[in-house]
Amino acid sequence: MIFHIDMDSFYSSVEVAADPTLKGLPVVVGSDPLQEGNRGVVSTCSYEAREFGIKSAMAISKAYRLCPEAVYLRVNMPLYKKVSNSIMELLRGYSSKFQQVSVDEAYLDVSDVVSSLEEAEKLALQIKEDVFQKEGITCSVGIGPNKSIAKIASDFQKPDGLTIVRPEDVRSFLYPLDVSRISGVGKKTSVMLGQMGIGTIGELAVYDVQELREKFGKFGLVMHQLANGVDGRKVQESGDIKSISKE
């Protein structure tokens, strides 16, 4: 049983926790939009800012046009790393099988810690509460039979979400979703799949695997397996930790 724990809008959430006067305001973390010749981008933004159409990787100048009244902050990586280290130290205490994959997300294999989905749900709720009490930010948790499904699930009810995918519900959960939900399937791959008539995970799952291999090489097989809910990767420390938030 795998947990994927993902902090919600991490950079902006840390900024709000550090300065509660920002709570409820549209907060954009990136660069100064009024700086002459600024070509910076949005690193992340609060959910209030997203209501104006602002999103990660957007040009900061465009974000400013969409919401000039937002609070624009420069990236404060030392602060984010400090909070990240605190949270990851906390998460390591729940299971010996822990894997941090970025500054704001991690996996836990709790198969040896809980014996039922009911116990898993209680543990997930406890983790969410402990993270909030320790650092004042929310996180979303996905629970599934493997890493891929847990990761997709954690993004399902953001922010402050908890989504549980039972083994018997894997197909009904995955199949209706857009194929871009699969890790590693970016815009270019999505377009190529669309040209093949594949728009959902379900359509990918039943597509001829040999054709996928011919088109995408080894990743074609990987995509097909993930679309069918198959992921044999273990939760283990790898040392390959992304220092940048994915949001």
Structure, briefly:
This protein is α/β, with parallel strands linked by helices and 247 residues long. It has helices spanning 10-18, 47-50, 60-66, 77-92, 117-135, 147-154, 170-174, 187-195, 201-205, 209-216, 218-227; strands at residues 2-7, 27-30, 44-45, 71-74, 98-102, 105-109, 139-144, 162-164.
What kind of sheet is the major sheet?
A: 5 strands, mixed
Determine Rg (CA atoms, Å).
19 Å
Total domains, how many? 3
- What structural class is derived from the secondary structure elements? alpha/beta
Fill in the CATH topology of the largest domain. Answer: Alpha-Beta Plaits
Number of strands: 8
Percent range for β-strand residues: 5-15%
Question: Helix share of residues?
Answer: 40-55%
What is the CATH class name of the largest domain?
A: Alpha Beta
| SSE sequence, one letter per element | EHEEHHEHEEHEHEHHHHH
pLDDT < 50 runs, ≥5 residues: none
Shape: globular
How is the secondary structure organized here?
Elements: E1 2-7, H1 10-18, E2 27-30, E3 44-45, H2 47-50, H3 60-66, E4 71-74, H4 77-92, E5 98-102, E6 105-109, H5 117-135, E7 139-144, H6 147-154, E8 162-164, H7 170-174, H8 187-195, H9 201-205, H10 209-216, H11 218-227
List keywords for this structure.
247 residues; DNA polymerase, domain 1; globular; MutS, DNA mismatch repair protein, domain I; 40% helix; Alpha-Beta Plaits; 11 helices; alpha/beta; 3 domains
Report what the structure shows:
This protein is 40% helix and 14% strand. With 247 residues, the protein is an alpha/beta fold. The chain folds into three domains: 2-10 and 78-167, Alpha-Beta Plaits, CATH 3.30.70.270; 11-75, MutS, DNA mismatch repair protein, domain I; 175-227, 5' to 3' exonuclease, C-terminal subdomain (DNA polymerase, domain 1, Orthogonal Bundle). A hairpin with a 2-residue loop joins strand 5 and strand 6 (105-109). The longest helix has 19 residues, at 117-135. It is globular, with a radius of gyration of 19 Å. The model has no long low-confidence stretch (mean pLDDT 94).
